[in-house]
Amino acid sequence: MSQAELLLSESGPGPRRAAGFALLGERLWRPASALLLPLAGAIGWEAGAEQGLIDAHLLPPPSQLLATFAALLAKGEAVQHIAATGQRVALGFFFGMAAGTVLGATTGYFDLARRLLDPSVQALRSVPPLAWVPLFILWFGIFETSKVMLIAVGVFFPVYLNLAGAMHGVDRKLVEVGRVHGLSHARIIRRVLLPAALPGYLIGLRSGLGLGWMFVVAAEFMGASEGLGFLLVDGQMMGRPTTILVAIVLFAVIGKSTDFAVAIVSARLLRWQDAFKPSGSA
Amino acid sequence: MLELDLVAKRFANGHLAVAAASLVVRESELVAIVGGSGCGKSTLLRLIAGLERPSAGQVRLAGRPIEGPSPEIGIVFQEPRLMPWLSVADNVRFGLAARPRIEADKAVREVLRRVGLEDFAKAWPRELSGGMAQRVAIARALVTRPKALLLDEPFSALDAFTRLDLQDHLIALWNHDRPTMVLVTHDIDEAIALGDRVLVMGGRPGRIYRELSIAAPRPRDRTAPAFVQAKRAILDDLRLARRPAAEPADGYAI
Fold first, then answer.
1. What ipTM, to 2 d.p.?
2. Per the CB < 8 Å rule, is B69 touching A179?
3. Is the dihedral of CA A186, A187, A190, A193 positive or negative?
4. Residue A87 forms part of a structural domain
5. By residue range, what is the domain housing residue A100?
6. Were A204 and a residue from A59, A155, A159, B84 both cysteine, which residue would form a disulfide, CB within 3.0 to 4.6 Å?
7. Which of A174, A176, A177 to mutate to test the interface with B (most CBs of B within 10 A)?
8. Total domain count for chain A?
9. Residues paired with residue B208 on neighbouring β-strands, in sequence order
């Protein structure tokens, strides 16, 4: 054992445990730092309302929002509304993602498919998604199907565009390595093109999910008896800004959470990337 | 034996990249091809690899015409071309997809040991230096034990020290299996140091201008008079070969 190793082993587990705590602190501090701004805002808002600087009737302070949310929770309504909206987003996201993936991979790989399909898809993309609402209501009625369809339309385009674009951006030289090793078209798609296109595809999924949360509100404005969008409409009708704000905060928290989940999965899948890391990051 | 029989390649845009090239590379022979940029030497290599189909003539390996890429021919490009999402070991395994897992694992370990990267099996390509990445690319080409190994300016992107190191390493690897080897390079020293024969290519259209046999045993002293003399001859040839469609001269030997 060398001199240096002896010195280290003599100092025992103490420093190592301290290092472990430092690491744990680091792990907790990173996500916690994101909460600083909202917390400071909430405290300022509460204090402003207390001092009479903010009109609590129009902009109820956080304490009232918490009370309203607690009441909704107690009646079981909060879970009901969140579940209704969550289910719509999940279904719409699934169908939009499936269609965007299949079509994006097709036009991304086959030139003929691209020339035939892509211009029409692009033309449909320039239709404002809300323009579909009247048609969907006529076709599918005012219930779940038309809502899920609208969300799916919103999710479809970013997934489609990002996947097809990422596949076009794949390095020809890597595809050639697949050819050199005698891989079939299907194998080249699976073993070279899809992994290489994964970063772009995941960005598509992430922005698709974001749009899914946008569109669920539009869908629930079409007429719904439950859901966070319904809470917004209900709050307006009944003149309860507290209800509206609770729904808005819930959108922010849940939307951010799902985005965070996708971001974590993405980081895990893309840990091979040789990407820029902002200064000061671990 | 690798044979090129009056091989020509004209691209769709009308450009004649290679005109009537004939060449016989004996089994286990190491042939180096030098030429200026745009002389068609890479196209010639891609024709042998089956990545391009000849417009005329035929390429044969062991008597069988080459119709497309085959596991009997390995190729190393100028860039390592590793899949960034695969570990070093999985990149090497890329060429062995059809083999049973245990057999492939064994072959991968063995070839990584030979290129001196067994400790980096789990590393990502981004964690490798340029020279290490190129050694992985060589390992990927060798793991299928090809009859012929083609190298397209494999060391041109590396610094001088790494390049010398890898040139020695390449000879050691070649000694193991003795595949037929065709090395395209624009580094004249590299061609003379490694090749049993050096072919000088001229451009527009690409053709084999002259060939030079080198009998001296490897490793070769790069400052020996014969080495310098060969280098001077090739430099002269390259200058002459730049002139379009010059008369090819007969072969000579040192």
1. 0.86
2. yes
3. negative
4. yes
5. 60-269
6. A159
7. A177
8. 1
9. B201
